[in-house]
Design goal:
With 65 residues, the chain is mainly alpha-helical. It contains 3 helices and no strands.
Length: 65
């Protein structure tokens, strides 16, 4: 559980950094995302989720990290 809470905290740090460092660019990016097709956004979300699962699996099953 400690690892899970640490990972959530780290995720929040990485998620918040672009908004802190580049707020104007993030607003412009949000306006562009708003205009995108929802099916495209859904596919990007699915692909990034699957890549994340594969990375987690590899990290847990090997001694690379």
């Amino acid at each position: 559980m400690k690892l899970f809470v640490t990972l959530i905290g780290l995720l929040m740090v990485f998620e918040g950094l672009p908004y802190f460092a580049f707020p104007e660019k993030m607003q412009a990016l949000m306006r562009q995302i708003e205009k995108m097709n929802p099916d495209y956004l859904r596919m990007v979300g699915l692909i990034s989720t699957l890549v994340g699962i594969v990375i987690c699996y590899i990290a847990q099953r090997t001694d690379i990290f």
